[in-house]
Amino acid sequence: MNSAGETGRWGEGGGRGGRHAVVVGGSLAGLLAAHVLAGHADRVTVVERDRFPDGGKPRPGVPQGRHPHVLLEGGQVALESLLPGFVAELRAAGAPRVGMPSDMVLWQSGRWFRRTPATTHIYTGSRAQLEELVRRRVLANPVISVVEATDAVGLVGDASRVRGVLLRDRSGDARTEPRALEADLVVDASGSGTKAPQWLTAIGADAPHEETIDTGLAYASRVYRGKSGVLDGETLGYYVYPDPGQVHAGGALPLEDGSHLVIVSGLRGDEPPTDDDEFVTYTKRLPHPLLHRWLADAEPLSPAFGYRRTANIRRRYDLPGRHPAGFLATGDALCTFNPIYGQGMAVAAMSAVALRDALADPRRTPTTRRVQRALLAASRQAWDISAGADRSMPGAVGTAVAGGPADRVAGWYLGRVQERSPGDPVVGRAFRAVLTLSAPVTALFALPVARAALFGPPAPTPTEPPAAPEEPGA
User: How many whole angstroms separate alpha carbon 209 and alpha carbon 371?
Assistant: First the structure.
């Protein structure tokens, strides 16, 4: 085990010009990491392969940026902690705030959810809008600078310590020798396509062990505008969740401009098409025709875009090995989730909070290994949810599919909780709190929830899609 990873502070020594941190990747995880590091470094440089767009527009470096994104409650709390007033700013920009389950028509495992009063809210505006708001706040800090249209192509250092990053201008000759940017800390926030494992082996360090679960899920999304601008008056959105017995999923979520982003998904070998007519036809695979009927009268505002990279991947930098000091991974570069569960933005924000707290903890020296473990812990609940659900999907493959006896027992119990959540408000509240990362998994073992899950039959649920929210106390 490399002792430098245990004992070395990331900024020890601080070379000429003071302590310098480099963040590879200017997406949400990278921006928030840079925001935190600005409180501990003299300079923070964000290296971004794209050029940031003017306004809230999608950019190539976020390949799933045109698809639905939700900001779960756990992410809202984290963002508000990092950037006070951000949630109000997001709402002022028009991002829809959707109450769960009251504002949605939801289907899972053969049952419609009762539309009881909301116990949590999600924001369903575009990824580009939210990222633009974060970028504006973060880059206003004079400590933070950005190098755009530049690829990170390697690390400077050795197996004991990373001392910088190798950069190459994307607009130049690819054969040009990369230039070195010295740093006391390099944070990899380059996303699910990270090359950091290869960079580490190139300097004599160990690549992290990777845990993978891949269901082969693929999805396609397209923007529509309904005749009245909303779905059925009191309904802000629809969603059908996938499960082993119903592998097709889909729905419609509201965007900030009054349109809706429609998504459909299927597994390997039955991927949704991006052809206009076939996209609509594919919605017939859902267990009820309500979305297909709505699309018949809705106006398409964009082409359909497809996405297929949906494997869960966790890189275990916390395990023993030659892991250099001065290097951290965060966001999707550390832990990538199947996007269908909507966890990525929340975990990016929660990871930044974990980074902040680890660096500021007066009781412990913030060694690279200790901080990396804190970042992994911030993503653990989301991994357990996403990986746990995908393990049971037909055709799932990967190094972590099998799980262990504890996973099977937990899966049995959580299956009973899930079966009761559509009709039981008490179970539903706890289940949503855990899924939105605003309560720990232990909330599902509280006595009222456990009693319902273990001894009570599932409560009755609507036989057809409920057209309106229930009144409080109904």
Answer: 18
Of residues 184 and 277, more confidently modeled:
184
DSSP bridge partners of 45: 22, 145
Residue 362: asked if its preceding bond is cis (omega within 30°), the reply is no
CA distance 324 to 359: 18
Question: How many CB atoms within 10 Å of residue 191?
Answer: 21
CA 130 to chain centre: 13
Tens-place pLDDT, residues 281-293? 999 999 999 999 9
Q: How many residues does the chain have?
A: 474
Sequence-distant contacts of 244-251: CB under 8 A, at least 24 apart: 244/392, 244/393, 244/394, 245/109, 245/110, 246/109, 246/110, 246/287, 247/393, 247/394, 248/285, 248/286, 248/287, 249/219, 249/286, 249/340, 250/283, 250/286, 250/291, 251/68, 251/291
Single-letter residue type at 1: M
Nearest alpha carbon to residue 184 among 325, 30, 317, 323: 325
Q: Is 352 helix (H, G, I), strand (E, B) or coil?
A: helix
> Which residue in this structure is represented by tokens 């709390």?
77
Cα 2 to Cα 210, 312, 326, 358, distances in angstroms:
19, 28, 12, 20
Which bin fits 472, alpha (ψ -120 to 50), beta or left (φ > 0)? beta
* Residue 329 bridge partners (DSSP): 188
Report the pLDDT averaged over residues 184-189: 98
Q: Where are the alpha helices (DSSP H) in 60-219?
A: 73-82, 86-92, 127-138, 196-202
- pLDDT digit string, tens, across residues 120-140: 999 999 999 999 999 999 999
* Rg of the chain over all Cα atoms, to the nearest angstrom: 23
* pLDDT value of position 170: 87
With tokens 């082996």, the residue in question is 201
Structural contact between residues 119 and 100, judged by C-beta atoms closer than 8 angstroms? yes
Q: Which of 468, 466, 393, 463 is nearest to 110 (CA)?
A: 463
